[in-house]
Amino acid sequence: MEARIIGGGIAGLAAAAGLTRAGWRVHVYERAPALANDGTGLGMWPNAVRALAELGLADELRRRGKPQRPGVIQRWDGRTLVEIDTTRIRRRAGEDVYVVARPDLLGLLFESLPDGTVHFGREWEGEADVVIGADGAHSAVRRRLFGARHGLRDTGYTVWRSVIDFGVRHAGEVWGPRAKFGYSPLTPDRTNFYAVLETPLVPRTLDEDHRALLAHFGEWPDPVASVLRRADPERMLRHRLHYLAPSLPSYVVGNTVLVGDAAHTMTPDLGQGACQALVDGLTLARCLARAVTEEDVRTGLREYDRRRRRPTQRIAAAARWLGWISTVRHGTGIRDALLRTVGSLAA
């Protein structure tokens, strides 16, 4: 059986790795001339680590990434709302949460594939038993299948991300009205950070962005200002935050299937985007592993849709809700009291 995958990001490479191990002939078409070498730290939760383990890649993830340290969620005035105990996650799930740079994760998946699997700088070509749309949030495959009605919706917020040569002791997120800031250590002397701010659609240079971020977050508790002052504006990545709405009625049409952001673009508030992309790719490969006929393929694709559509759509809805509550304009006192209550019950 043969699969053609449109897009060489996390979801596409994960699907390629899983299907290759199952004996499929796989071609990945990636418009970019090479693997993406930008991007900041990604949280690999236990579900993603288990997916990589099935591909034989978990040990290499542990070598390239670092276990997530315990962290804290604070208010913008410095008061602690809740502590995040990652050791409790390890006890419950039997696995750490790892932080890995996006280029390292892409490289890990790419290196597991046979030479010639990924065709860089090329558009999709030819027919196949299965066509996999892994072309991201602005998916042309999704648009071809479902039209413009199921499209990206703007949250009104922008996120800036970067990695700086400066160490922080632990991970943290700081919530304020209409803004939040997060940071986590990648190594003892490197830190991944993101800043989320309500912004109008007005073009600005990255230098202007940096000054605006310092003006807004400069008085927030340490290490927020220290991290921002060390950020190089030219290395910051800037993205509007979007989500897919309305949710898709299916991830499968005929022999075409959607995975990752193409299927369920979500805001990054739960840190599950990359994790769900990995699980999508592995689940699809598992559902198609024994397919030898067209009917087998149809059955496998229906099973993939059954397993993945509703869980990923629930996660996307939860991420959107958390994004709203963490940057709420009014009622921050009620929000903070609820979060402290939830934190105390989970302790």
UniProtKB/TrEMBL annotation:
GO MF terms held by the record: FAD binding; monooxygenase activity
The keyword Oxidoreductase is annotated on this UniProt entry: yes
Superkingdom of origin: Bacteria
Record key words, sorted: Monooxygenase, Oxidoreductase
Chain ranges of the FAD-binding domain: 3-112, 127-316
Keyword Oxidoreductase: yes
InterPro entries tied to this protein: FAD-bd, FAD-dep_Monooxygenase_BioMet, FAD/NAD-bd_sf
PANTHER family: MONOOXYGENASE, PUTATIVE (AFU_ORTHOLOGUE AFUA_6G14510)-RELATED
Name under which the protein is recorded: 2-polyprenyl-6-methoxyphenol hydroxylase-like oxidoreductase
